[in-house]
Amino acid sequence: MAYDPFAMALDRELIVRTALRLLEEVGLETLSLRRLAKELGVNPSALYWHFENKQELLDEMARAVVLTALTGAGVPAPIRNTWDAWLAHLARAQWRAVRSYRDGPLLLMAARPTADYQLSYLDEILSRLVDAGFSPREAGDAFVTISNYALGTALIGQQHERAGEIVGQRPDAGHDRHDHPSLARIAESHADQEVTFERGLGWLIAGMRQSRDVTSS
Questions:
Q1: Among residues 102, 94, 103, 104, which one has the least CA distance to residue 68?
Q2: Is residue 92 classed exposed, middle or buried when 0-12, 13-18 and 19+ CB atoms within 10 A define those classes?
Q3: Each residue of 63-104: pLDDT tens digit?
Q4: What is the separation of C-alpha 66 from the centre of its chain, rounded to a whole number of angstroms?
Q5: pLDDT tens-digit map of 128-156
Q6: How far apart are CA 172 and CA 91, in angstroms?
Q7: Torsion of CA 162, 167, 170, 175, to 10 degrees
Q8: Model-level pTM?
Q9: How far is C-alpha 49 from the geometric centre of its chain's CA atoms?
Q10: Which residues of 180-216 are buried (b: 16+ CB within 10 A; e: fewer)?
Q11: 92 φ, ψ to 5°?
């Protein structure tokens, strides 16, 4: 590839930051390397100095989102150094981090799965789980289950919010579609997503605690 001074003036961090900002504006489906290059004021070929393809860029964007989660994302580190406190911290941090970006859950689903940049955090949680009586396999399953719960609830929450925006633009938006008590209860759960998320998280961890106690007895 020929030397390109504009490409060399870029760096991966700037590209990722710009891509995440553009994601907020246009969404994952519309995000493209061509559009990103236009935002950066460079030729699209300049991006290939830093990323082999769009998939590699998505991987790096997801990495930035996960690292934001692991470094806080507004969630204080667990006060109790116990397995359940660490799992709860993981879930809350991931949930808030991916929800802070438009299509954040979809971005993580589009990225290739890897944990090379969160090894110390992963080691801490898994060692706590094993020390608490879980087998190494159960510890891995617990980590995956909690991560999937956080990602899944964030995805559904964003989809519901988007659907609400679309419904609000329709002429019949004033019609009460939740006259039925069951529909009203579901709507209430969607309306206060954090409360619903915390309740479900509590149930998950309580189930893990009970399973561990039964296995160890």
A1: 94
A2: buried
A3: 888 887 776 556 667 778 889 998 998 899 889 989 989 999
A4: 7
A5: 999 999 999 999 999 999 999 999 999 99
A6: 37
A7: -160
A8: 0.79
A9: 28
A10: eeeeeeeeeeeeebeeebeebbeebbeebeeebeeee
A11: -65, -45
Structure tokens at 146: 């909690």
Instruction: Give the span between the Cα atoms of 73 and 75, in whole angstroms.
Output: 5
User: 87: which 2 tokens?
Assistant: 């799992």
| Alpha-carbon span 43 to 4, nearest angstrom | 10
DSSP at 198: H
Q: Which tokens go with 56? A: 């590699």
Pinpoint the alpha helices (H) of 27-135: 33-40, 44-47, 54-70, 83-99, 104-110, 119-131
User: How many CB atoms lie under 10 A from the CB of residue 104?
Assistant: 28
Instruction: Name 84's Cβ contacts closer than 8 Å, sequence gap at least 6.
Output: 205, 208, 209
In contact, 62 and 117? CB cutoff 8 Å: no
CA distance 178 to 156: 19
d(CA 141, CA 14): 35
